[in-house]
Write a structure and sequence with these properties.
The complex is a heterodimer of chains A (about 300) and B (about 300). Chain A is of the alpha/beta class. Chain A is about 35% helix and about 25% strand. Chain A is globular, with a radius of gyration of 21 Å. With about 300 residues, chain B is of the alpha+beta class. A four-stranded antiparallel β-sheet of chain B has the order 1-4-2-3. In chain B, helix 1 packs across helix 6 and helix 2 packs antiparallel against helix 4. The two termini of chain B are about 25 Å apart. The chains are: A alpha/beta (about 300), B alpha+beta (about 300). Chains A and B meet through helix 2, strand 5 and helix 3 of A and helix 1, helix 5 and helix 6 of B.
Chain lengths: ~300, ~300
């Protein structure tokens, strides 16, 4: 498979000391819907903004279909449909005015296609943007991005402020559009259940670095959850509390051959005794592992 | 193109309507007051030699009553109009987009930020220029009615407060406010900064240009200059032909200025003749136009480089 989006040794520093992204290497495969997951401040928005030329990397390179957005921002934007984090519609304009705006400024913008998506989502074209709910505004943003017919869609937490039903409709439209056109989508989100249904692949960002980049299926199949004990040997990714307060550990099944060592045998035994991990547990386990250990708290003190 | 202009006006409907309404009301008021002044029929009396007849005295009372109250008020309001229009229309143009985050949408849709900027800026600049040109022309017309003895097309009186200069002052103000908005990305700081820097900038240019124009002044005999001339300085001509100022004369001949007879050297005035009004005005328009163009071009560079907010 070819990589549509690439980051090579990417670093972005704000001010003198704060690195939002550091030494980040990742690739997003063509035609995939990839979820970008990470806590607040992990660099998700910075990464997406860098691909549309809104942020200039401090180190490293970016590629979007072989275009460097730093050197050729116009070409990068022409390849991209972007849905910003917060709804960024013009409150004085109607929905139809937004389509007219996009048609004026984006060569090849398919107004008819965007209208069809909005019709499907039952969003009245004559409504002013400030009369729409947060969910509807996000859906207008998606329709605008899809109307560009761009081969790459970058969606920066569009689901954050919308209700479950609107989220479901949003994802349904997104998945249908991507499957129909063969485009590539990178969706940053906190809502793991939605990601599991809509996305093929997962990238977990933490502390500005890529912690995990695999297919959703591989993420689930490649991890198991066990109850935490005092002894943590090989195969442990991270420990985290369950919703009911139990201490859990995310572990990887030990690769074949590794059982020959004592630690490997212990880890394999522990993995076999555990249960299948949910996607949320996979994400949380990896995020917990990326946190610096805090001596005052048992949870989060991870030995991998 | 039509869609682009329509959308820009839609986004700035309130500002455009408020500025256009205020301007058109003032233009209308200027023409109404000018018509009232003309209707008094004071013109022939104003140009008459010798003492006025009782009829002229009566007309003068009515004429100056209107001129000093209504005409002065309208001209005073037109004088602040270019600054207000520049602030109201130029300030929010980019600043509000950055503040509200709509630039994230616009700059991700439009591959060319320059094209987006031109589509936003040009209609507003044309509106400001058109409205302020109308206001300046109305001020010119009213001032001509207020000064029936003066050839206002050849007079420096009310310089910068009437005619085409008003439109160019507004252009600089608008360009400055647009540029500051692109830098700060916030409306309120933009308005405050633009008000201070714009007023200082426009009056600064006017002052510098007046100083430059003074270097082109000519000398005319006599203490009293023709109405319409711009007075620059006054000198005494000594018997040896040297020109000296009052201070210099006092050093040469202490006590002469306080003597009962006063100095009997001929007085020479330095003036820019009123006939040069249009030429000097055109030059200042070109300077202001160039400054506005440079500021708008500088804003384009800022927009190319900055984050969308």
């Amino acid at each position: 498979m070819t990589a549509t989006l690439e980051a090579i040794g990417l670093g972005k520093r704000y001010g003198r000391r704060r690195w939002a992204l550091r030494d980040l290497d990742l690739a997003v495969e063509e035609g995939s819907i990839t979820a970008l997951v990470g806590p607040n401040g992990s660099g998700k928005s910075t990464l997406l903004k860098s691909w549309v030329g809104f942020e200039r990397p401090t180190t490293g390179r970016l590629r979007i279909h072989d275009v460097d957005p730093v050197r050729n921002r116009a070409a990068a934007i022409a390849l991209t449909g972007y849905v910003p984090q917060a709804p960024s519609l013009y409150r004085e304009l109607s929905v139809d005015d937004h389509l007219a705006f996009a048609a004026v400024h984006r060569p090849g913008f398919d107004r008819g296609l965007a209208r069809r998506y909005l019709d499907d989502l039952r969003i009245p074209l004559d409504s002013r943007a400030d009369e729409l709910s947060g969910g509807q505004q996000a859906q207008v943003g998606l329709a605008l991005a899809l109307g560009t017919r761009a081969p790459v869609l970058l969606l920066d937490e569009p689901l954050a402020s919308i209700d479950p039903l609107a989220r479901r409709e949003f994802l349904h439209v997104l998945v249908d559009a991507v499957r129909a056109t063969g485009s590539t989508a990178l969706l940053s989100s906190h809502v793991i259940t939605d990601i599991e249904q809509a996305c093929d692949s997962l990238i977990v960002l933490g502390g500005g670095r890529s912690l995990l980049a695999v297919s959703i299926q591989a993420a689930i199949d490649g991890h198991r959850v066990v109850e935490a004990d005092a002894e943590a040997n090989g195969g442990v990714v991270g420990s985290f509390p369950s919703a009911t307060g139990e201490h859990l550990m995310l572990v990887r099944p030990v690769p074949e051959g590794a059982e020959s060592s004592a630690a490997g045998r212990a880890a394999a035994g522990r993995a076999a005794a555990g249960r299948a991990a949910t996607l949320e547990e996979v994400v949380i386990g990896h995020l917990a592992a990326s946190r610096p250990p805090r001596p005052d708290r048992a949870v989060g003190a991870v030995a991998a | 193109m039509r869609d682009s202009i329509r959308l820009t006006f839609r986004m700035h409907r309130f500002e455009v309507l408020a500025t256009a309404t205020a301007t058109l009301l003032l233009v209308l008021a200027a023409y109404v007051v000018a018509a009232r002044l003309d209707a008094v029929g004071f013109g022939p009396c104003a140009g008459a030699q010798g003492p006025w007849s009782p009829r002229c005295e009566g007309l003068a009372n009515v004429f100056f009553g209107i001129a000093q109250s209504e005409a002065t008020a309208v001209l005073g309001l037109i004088a602040i109009l270019p600054y207000a229009a520049g602030l109201i229309l130029g300030g929010p143009l980019i600043a509000r987009e950055i503040e509200r985050g709509t630039t994230r949408l616009a700059w991700s849709i439009s591959p060319s930020r320059l094209r987006w900027y031109l589509a936003r800026m040009l209609p507003i600049v044309v509106v400001v220029f058109g409205l302020m040109f109308a206001a300046g022309s109305a001020a010119d017309h009213l001032f001509a009615a207020q000064e029936p003895r003066l050839d206002t097309a050849n007079a420096f009186d009310m310089y910068g407060l009437r005619g085409g200069l008003v439109a160019f002052e507004a252009l600089v103000m608008t360009a400055g406010a647009v540029g500051l908005g692109a830098v700060t990305g916030r409306v309120l700081p933009t308005l405050i900064l633009a008000l201070i820097l714009g007023a200082v900038g426009v009056t600064g240019v006017a002052t510098l240009h007046a100083r430059y124009t003074a270097t082109e002044a000519i000398l005319v005999d006599g203490e009293f200059v023709d109405s319409g001339d711009r007075w620059v300085d006054q000198f005494f001509r000594l018997p040896d032909g040297r020109l000296v100022s009052w201070n210099e004369l006092e050093q040469i001949d202490p006590g002469i200025l306080t003597s009962e007879m006063g100095p009997d050297y001929p007085i020479v005035s330095k003036v820019v003749p009123g006939e040069r009004y249009r030429e000097v005005e055109a030059r200042e328009m070109i300077i202001l136009g160039a400054i506005a163009f440079m500021m708008l071009a500088g804003t384009a560079v800022i927009i190319q480089r900055r984050r969308p907010g």
